[in-house]
Amino acid sequence: MSTIEEIQTEIIDDFAMFDDWIQKYEYLIDLGKDLPQIEEQYKTEDNLIKGCQSRVWLYAEHTKGKIIYTADSDAIMTKGIVAILINVLSGQSPAEIANAKLDFINEIGLTEQLSPTRANGLVSMIKQMKIYALAYSK
Amino acid sequence: MLDIKKIRAEFPILNRKVNGMDLVYFDNGATTQKLQSVIDSEANYYIDENSNIHRGVHFLSRLATNKYEETRRAVQDFIGAKHKHEIIFTKGTTDCINLVANGYRTMLDKGDEIIISELEHHSNIVPWQMCCEISGATLKVIPLLDNGILDMNEFENLLSKNTKLVSVSHTSNTLGTINDIETIIAKAHNFSAKVMIDGAQAASHIALNMQKLNADFYCFSAHKMFGPTGVGVLYGKEEVLNILPPYQGGGEMIKEVSFEKTTYAGLPHKFEAGTPNIAGVIAFKQAIDFITDLGVSEIAKYENELLQYATAEVLKIEGVKIYGTAAHKSSIISFNIEGLHPYDIGVIVDKMGIAVRTGHHCTQPIMDRFNIPGTVRISLAVYNTKQEVDVCIKAIKKAKLMLS
Fold first, then answer.
1. For a FRET experiment, which of A115, B100, B167, B394 has its CA 20 to 30 Å from that of A67?
2. Which residues of A touch B (CB under 8 A)?
3. Which residues lie across from B376 on neighbouring strands?
4. Which of B154, B146, B153, B195 lies closest to B175, judged by CA?
5. Cross-chain residue pair B373–A54, CB shorter than 8 Å
6. Domain containing A120 — which CATH number?
7. How many domains does chain A have?
8. pLDDT tens per residue, range B19-54
9. Which of A4, A11, A52, A122 is catalytic?
């Protein structure tokens, strides 16, 4: 299992290959389609992240000292963003997730998508992922 | 016939590029772009005229006061109000509704009723909920029909001797529906209820005459009519404003202050506590002059032509559904494409320089009514063109292709 740092570097390298926004967005859409899907039973009001224009459900399971995230959204671009976050953080230990510095956000040149505005709820997503990690690290 | 090229030249921002593409600004329902004359006036106020109003005896204070009051006179003419002191300057439409709703908190009791509608902006819902919570009055809601018009039969059923106030929008910011406010006003008055009209989406699109319309309150924002942000207008009939308690206390709104008893100033100052947005109010006159020179009916004619064209083009997109199909509509098109989320469409067309609004447009009850998470909204202004519509439609089709 790669570390959070290593995965972030891979993502930055992946995005560096694209020439224009269309390729980046298409990649994001593809990532969204491959998002580790949350089970229907967990798509509850409690697991809904507030503060996004689109709805995002996020669920975390703690097994063998690692946290596994699954999620879903009704918007595909949002799903792409969640998929990247899950790729970076899922399968790591609670302590590593809680302390993770997510530098890739500024590096991959998707500022419209990944800027912390109200519309995409990125801040709320990261916060919720870290809250799960903190809860399991006790 | 309006010269759109000449009109566009008066809005400097329309020349800019977004993401390397020509800006297509179709988010006029949120705010319109600003006239060069408005920008110049606002700057010139600080360069050459700055002083506080209604206070000083010195030259600059008199100058600023006169210019501020000139805008009040211009607004009076623009909306056909009987008296100049029936024009109250506020921060915006939301502020206007809060001003009135706050006053009604002490004027209403348990058993009294306020009627709003299902298509209101949150700004015309929440202040009345707060008013009801404190006063004990009950909020009633006129339901929406499938085509986005208000159920007027149900409105009549809701009216009773308990109805004290009806507050509805002139034009829906989400659906574009122009409500039949003339009928609403007349029917409400039959029950001696007062009527407030939220004209935020109407003021530069529909010709207004307060004396003919006979609404008790009417409000709108300068920033949705090519003017500055932070300036709103509350019109109220003199006799109604005289009864309404003041909203905020402070300077300007008093007659005499002592610790035993403070008396309030007359209209309009009773509702204008504190130093207002003087520069904005003065600059707003340029926007009113611009609209008056073009003629509101000419603007409406052109915008309707653009609306018809854009609607026909949007309907050509496969799987599209337009929300709000009233016969009497303002230049707003809310739509979704089957299987696609409005947010996804919005972020992709943004990359092509197109500014549309996505989301619930501060009208969550409408979204619930149609069981949708949001819509893509195109809202057109007089400086928009058919060519821009074509560019936008092409971008939406491209987004659809990428997302499918």
1. A115
2. 21-22, 25-26, 29, 53-55, 74-78, 112-113, 119-120
3. B335, B358
4. B146
5. yes
6. 3.90.1010.10
7. 1
8. 899 999 999 999 999 999 999 999 999 999 999 998
9. A52
